[in-house]
Predict the structure.
Amino acid sequence: MTDELKLYGYARSLYVCRVKIALDMKGIKYENVEEDISNKSADLLKYNPVHKKVPVLVHNGNPITESLVIIEYIDDVWKGVPVLPQDPYEKSVARFWAKFIDDKCAPAVIKVFLSNGEQQALAEAFEQLQILENELKVKGTKFFGGDNINLVDIAADFLAYWVGALEEVTEVKLITEDKFPKLVKWAENFINCKVVKEILPPREGLIEYFKKWTGKE
Ligand SMILES: N[C@@H](CCC(=O)N[C@@H](CS)C(=O)NCC(=O)O)C(=O)O
């Protein structure tokens, strides 16, 4: 049987891009269904009735939601280039960092831009980013995944690309070379990976979007 694979997404979404990167890493073909987030399709609401969000991957009629869960599903179903480590302990470590990025780091970073660089928000974000900076320093590798990107790098796509657009719009500098040299280098390496580069949405579109989002039109 040929697999039927559809990705309900939205090109500017960092979460959708995560899934696209994982699919492309493995060379998996899929149908891209672009959603209008302000007017969600009946299919999206049917497939993700709990969160009503993209991405949703539908594999032979079965919906899978939440970007990190989808990536694990992709890695379980399709062999080829691994996205998570094979070793159970290393796998748990990768899951830990991906969760840290979503639960602690990204919310702190978003707060900085929504508060227009308020001191307390900046201090909190610096603290979380320093943890990732230290992790890269300890690992001493090009990526969180080692020589190649893995779940953790993909989970941090927001820090590598979207944050730069937010910095430009708000004029708040957060991830700077003097404070976070390892993270800056990592971001450069990440966005220059062939598979990542081909998926990232154009920067101009993000700038427009973030101008509206931060009320800086
Ligand atoms: N935790 C979710 C977050 C997904 C998410 O926030 N998606 C946004 C697009 S970037 C969305 O669909 N927003 C629509 C809405 O909130 O109504 C994941 O990892 O997939």
About this structure: Residues 88-213 form a domain with the Glutathione S-transferase Yfyf (Class Pi); Chain A, domain 2 fold (CATH 1.20.1050.10). Residues 10, 13, 15, 37, 52-55, 66-68 surround glutathione (CB under 6 Å). The two ends are 50 Å apart (CA to CA). The chain has a mean pLDDT of 97.
